[in-house]
Write a structure and sequence with these properties.
By secondary structure, the chain is an alpha+beta fold. Helix content is 51%, strand content 14%.
Length: 687
């Protein structure tokens, strides 16, 4: 590196940064700035610059803005939130070699570290949703991934010599130095506005960040923060303190160019918010450029105050950003739309802008016609100026006097709005939803024949979900996964927080699973694979759950017979793992490794596995036999209870029969006695 720097000593680094900046900013200004501002206006429900609705001719006309684009982007944000944050684990880390215990432990600890950082110290939810929104509006979204470290003075401490003994000066006093304490030590993902990420327009569209010969990240900073950076360095990353500049030079860092879109984003119509008329110098906004420039085979990094002065000397990128491997830069640029051979693809808002304007025009024309129909214009005979204020301020029960009502005032009532205007509005809505991939009530009502059947509804929703999930996959593949891969390298290079490491080790069960009770640098440096927990099919919660259950059940039905025949070791074969990947891939997941354990932890001897399988089968047979015996005993007991109950019922029946007969005999005797008493008495002659 020193040899390369010596060979480039004659390079004017400031002039080189200025030339690169001018080339990139001229291209953005001429090719994309107007489109970006128009997309911002449409997202903010504003008619774009140059629209007829902003002219004086339309001051008294309907100027409604139908928020279809805003609704579409909000739906995309909700879809992104559902897809990326439906599970507790943000990311899944797996080792490249499943048979290496060191890599398994490394994957477990890195996954817990990353989940902790993304949930606790990084606003990951807002970062992802903001990135998706930015990609939909501009076509690109960008972020810088780096480690944020800051120290502050906290009193004094004695200076120690090589023997760890305090040093005493000539006066007999202890030598002291400032005691530094860490106030910030964490990873950072910094979103970058699209106009503030500049690369060569001729760069490779597949990887514009790393293929461009230069990359410039513009960062607006307050002057007080720039002055603070001139006094402090970063001992963890090796970033030196910035060069001290006077106030006159700092004033030159106030860039005023036409690419600034900050006011358009914030609906600010006053003076530029970054103007140099701020009353307090420390709070004025300056622009700092972080330049990545390739010279020969080395990629250098250095800061400049706009294009006015150097803030740091050029240093190879890998010396400042230890997590940048294989020549990568600490910046990721993602997209929401793939357009081949275009480093700046069209945004989703740009694609839908013309349909949004047509919808606005038709709605405003219809509203004007409706207003004219309800409150028609009138013709007033010349010379009757006194009638004009009264007609202008019409109200119910108001009396207007005129000479001849038949000729002085004549209404010009247009015909009412017919069904053609509404039919055309439905067609525009259908075209908009078709291009955007929306599925809503407007799409259903327009496709009358299809929504009359359940199958037609599924077809409509299926096509819509396909486009929605495609956009989600593009965003995930181009932005989310590259950012998280750099986060893994960042944790491997810089993580030293003992408390967070201990929490991650406890959650990963390092001691129980791998017998590791201490986290070392070698443990963190494993070769790992990053998989984001999102996939096609992750936008509908009900459908996602059904697909997941279907994949689990299908895998069990296919693999269970193999395990019975070949034993548990069959799970470690590549064929079974490929079956899992195929099944879970169809269900919307890249693989099933985070749901299934393919490692046979019972040992590598297949005979032991077979014996254990036989023992399991014997145990199942024993349980079945016991169950059968229990069933037979239960049948015998039931029969005995039934016979006993039947005998008791027979006895009761016999007793009831005897009692019934006795009662009947007694009743008959009483009847005979009563009948005898009622008969007349006869005289008997005795001879």
């Amino acid at each position: 590196n020193e040899t390369s720097m010596d060979a480039e000593d004659d390079t004017d680094w400031l002039d080189l940064a200025k030339n690169c900046y001018d080339t990139a900013i001229d291209y953005v200004q001429s090719s994309h700035r107007d489109d970006w501002e128009r997309s911002i206006n449409l997202f903010n429900n504003e008619h774009p610059a140059g629209s007829k609705y902003n002219s004086d001719a339309f001051k008294r006309r309907s100027r409604l803005f139908r928020p279809k684009i805003r609704s579409y982007i909000r739906k995309n944000e909700a879809t992104t939130a559902q897809a990326f944050f439906s599970t507790q684990d943000v990311v899944n880390i797996s080792p490249q070699n499943d048979n290496d215990e060191q890599q398994l432990a490394s994957a477990a600890i890195i996954q817990e570290l990353l989940n902790y950082r993304l949930q606790k110290t990084i606003p990951w939810f807002r970062t992802v949703i903001g990135a998706r929104q930015t990609a939909d509006i501009y076509g690109i979204t960008a972020a810088k991934i780096y480690w944020k470290y800051q120290e502050a003075e906290d009193g004094e401490q004695p200076v120690m010599d090589e023997s760890d003994m305090p040093i005493i000066n000539e006066n007999g006093d202890l030598e002291v130095e400032p005691r530094m304490v860490v106030v910030e030590d964490r990873p950072a993902i910094e979103p970058i506005e699209p106009e503030n990420i500049l690369f060569d327009p001729a760069s490779d569209w597949l990887d514009p960040v790393n293929s461009s010969p230069y990359l410039i990240v513009r960062r607006p900073m307050f002057a007080i923060d720039v002055k603070a950076m001139m006094k402090t360095d970063d001992p963890k990353s090796g970033q030196p303190a910035w060069k001290e500049l006077d106030d006159a030079t700092l004033k030159m860092g106030q860039e005023m160019d036409e690419t600034n879109l900050d006011d358009a984003r914030n609906l600010f119509d006053g003076p530029d918010r970054t103007s140099n008329d701020a009353p307090i110098d420390d709070y004025e906004v300056l622009f700092v450029h972080e330049n990545f420039v390739k010279r020969g085979e080395i990629d250098y990094q250095y800061y400049t105050l706009a294009t006015a002065a150097l803030l740091t000397d050029p240093v190879p990128v890998e010396e400042i950003y230890l997590h940048c491997k294989n020549g990568d830069r600490p910046v990721v640029v993602g997209f929401s739309n793939v357009e081949a051979f275009k480093p700046y693809p069209s945004s989703r808002v740009e694609m839908l802008g013309s349909l949004q304007q047509e919808a606005n025009d038709l709605a405003n024309l219809r509203m004007d016609a409706l207003k004219f129909s309800l409150t028609p214009m009138v013709k007033v005979r010349r010379g009757n100026k006194a009638l004009v204020p009264a007609l202008t301020n019409r109200s119910p029960a108001k009396v207007i006097t005129m000479d001849d009502p038949a000729t002085d005032v004549i209404e010009m009532a247009p015909p009412p709005v017919n069904s053609q205007a509404y039919a055309e509005q439905d067609r525009i809505n259908a075209d908009f939803d078709d291009l955007a991939g929306n599925f809503n009530g407007g799409s259903v009502s327009t496709n009358r024949r299809m929504n009359e059947t359940v199958g037609g509804m599924h077809l409509l929703s299926g096509e819509s979900n396909l486009l929605t999930e495609y956009d989600l996959r593009v965003f995930s593949e181009t932005f989310v996964e590259p950012v998280l891969r750099q986060m893994v390298h960042l944790e491997q290079a810089y993580e030293t927080d003992a408390v967070i490491l201990a929490i991650a080790a406890e959650k990963a069960d390092l001691l129980q699973k791998y017998g590791i009770n201490q986290i070392t640098d070698d443990l963190l440096q494993g070769e790992l694979t990053v998989t984001v927990n999102v996939g096609v099919g992750g936008t509908d919660p009900m459908m996602q759950g059904r697909k997941f259950l279907m994949a689990i059940q299908s895998f069990q039905q296919l693999v269970a017979p193999l395990v019975q025949v070949y034993g548990p070791n069959v799970l470690e074969t590549s064929g079974v793992q490929e079956i899992a990947k195929e099944l879970f891939g169809k269900a919307g997941y890249k693989d099933g490794q985070r749901f299934l354990n393919f490692k046979n932890e019972q040992g590598d001897d297949p005979r032991i596995a077979q014996l254990q399988a036989q023992i399991g089968q014997l145990g199942q047979a024993l349980q079945a036999t016991q169950s059968q015996l229990q069933d037979k005993n239960m049948d015998r007991q039931l029969k005995m209870a039934e016979a006993q109950m039947k005998g008791q019922m027979d006895v009761k029946k016999a007793e009831m029969d005897v009692q019934g007969k006795a009662a009947l005999a007694e009743q008959n005797f009483k009847l005979d006695l009563a009948r005898a008493q009622l008969l007349p008495t006869k005289n008997v002659n005795v001879m």
